[in-house]
Amino acid sequence: MGIRLLGLAGRGLGRSRALSWLARIDLDRDLLKPLKILDSYDWHQRLWDCFPSAPEQKRDFLTRIDLLEGAVRAWLLSEREPLRPEWCPAEAFVAKEVAPGFLSHKHYAFDLRANPTKVLIQRGPDGSPMRKNNGKRTVGKRVPLVSHEDLRSWIDRKAAESGFRISEARPLEIGPMVEHHFHAKGNRGYHGGVQFRGILEVTVPAKFSLAYLKGIGTAKAFGFGLLLLSPV
Question: What is the pTM of this model?
Answer without folding.
Answer: 0.84
